[in-house]
Amino acid sequence: MKKKAFTLIELLVVISIIALLVSILMPALSKAREQAKRTVCMTRMKQLVTCWQMYAMDNNDNMPGSWSNNRQGVSMFGDESDWAWAPWKLDGSGPVLPLATAKLLPMFSKEREEGIRRGSLFKYIQDPELVHCPSDKLNFRTYSMPDALNGHWGTNVITGQGDWLCFKKLSQLKRPSEKYVFIEENDSRGFNIDSWTFYTKSYVFSDPLTVWHSGGCNLAYGDGSVNWRKWSAEVTKYYKDNAWGGLVPTTQEGKEDAAYLGRGWPKP
Predict the structure, then answer these.
(1) pTM of the model as a whole
(2) Using CA atoms, how far apart are residues 177 and 183, in angstroms rounded to an integer?
(3) Distances 186 to 32, 193, 196 between C-alpha atoms, Å
């Protein structure tokens, strides 16, 4: 008996149905993948906060430095107590330069890991991957700390250029459940240099933040909790287009984002 073959029209119908099903399923799959990455990110940030707390308990209540150790490189400041260091030469002679060249940094994967290992928190972190969000395709170290936490830009520091106070003791942190100590940063130069800054009085977004988690990012708080914050359309668009700071919000929703960051900024 002669077998009946598919006609061209039948094949086109089948292909169209498959294409329709794929178009329906793909957004759901993408959403599920992003949700999984966000969950991994939140877990890593929670572990980081625990490490940060353990460091203070083991060091007479002193917090680790919030900068990356660049004192021999492009930055004038930095300290060996900094929680994470810049990409560091394997012979220990100093940071890899130029730090601000994103295209060159992927060549120094071992040096980027070495910088994490030299940081004061690595004793507790143990795994360099803990400082990286799965959604981050540019920076080896995704997470940054606000400068107020043992940084260098506060008004009470001789080098300060910000409008906040820097402090060094964990016990000085007021309302830790409301104050973030780690935030996701996305410095377009390919390396999240030094601490994260935000002008708390003028509400100017100085350093960049991320919007890859469904238009938001994760923030880890001093009590060990981690929350996801969805940013306004204004903030999301700005960081999709610019990937750098300098934003002064003009919309009501953008101003609410700024107020949220201002309220959560660590204060002694």
Answers:
(1) 0.86
(2) 14
(3) 22, 10, 10
